Amino acid sequence: MSTLCDTTEATVTDAIDASLRETFAMMVGDEVEFVQKTTLDPSLRSPLTTVDLDNAVDRQMTVVVGLSGDLQGSVSVCLDQAAALDWTEKLIDHQTEQVDQIVVDAIGELGNMTVGGAKSRVDGFSLKLGLPSVLLTGHQHLAFPTQCRPIEMQYRYQSWDLRVFVALV
Question: Residue 15 pLDDT > 60, yes or no?
């Protein structure tokens, strides 16, 4: 299994951290509080189980942006639906109590801005971004290929959890 060097991982995660903070400050006038960064071992994650969708209460959203070029993988931003509604209201003054297409688009834009801002901060890599994909599920349903060491970056946005997963190969 090939892994990225620690310097490359640190450069990328530092760029994502700076971009996420700047995106929230500039776009909605709020700050995110860094909690911790953890390197995950995919083989130690609990195995995927069947989910009873009728009984599952998943009140989170995830936007995934793929990366290609010199670094390949993905960046996923996971947040509570309430945080997504708050982000959308502050970003474009769209008030709603449920996830609709405007909220999905706004969360896609959060992923785009965060990863795009990080891309502009990382010198020496030819990176291309994929279109953001928004999932109506949270971090507990993410799984990663064994050839990467995903890094989880945890934040607080007001009273909500926000997590960023960087999975590069």
Answer: yes
d(CA 119, CA 122) in angstroms, rounded, equals: 5
Question: CA 169, CA 167: separation in Å to the nearest integer?
Answer: 7
Instruction: Report the C-alpha dihedral over residues 6, 11, 12, 14, rounded to 10 degrees.
Output: 120
Whole-prediction pTM: 0.88
Which residue from 165, 168, 102 is spatially nearest to 137, judged by alpha carbons? Answer: 165
Contact 35, 152 (CB under 8 A): no
Per-position DSSP letters for 94-154, written without gaps between them: ---SS--HHHHHHHHHHHHHHHHHHHHH-TT--EEEPPPEEESS-GGG----TTS--EEEE
Tens-place pLDDT, residues 121-169: 997 888 899 999 999 998 888 888 888 889 999 999 999 999 999 999 8
CB atoms inside a 10 Å sphere around CB 140:
10
Gap between the Cα atoms of 166 and 126, Å rounded: 17
Instruction: Determine contact, residues 67/77, Cβ cutoff 8 Å.
Output: no
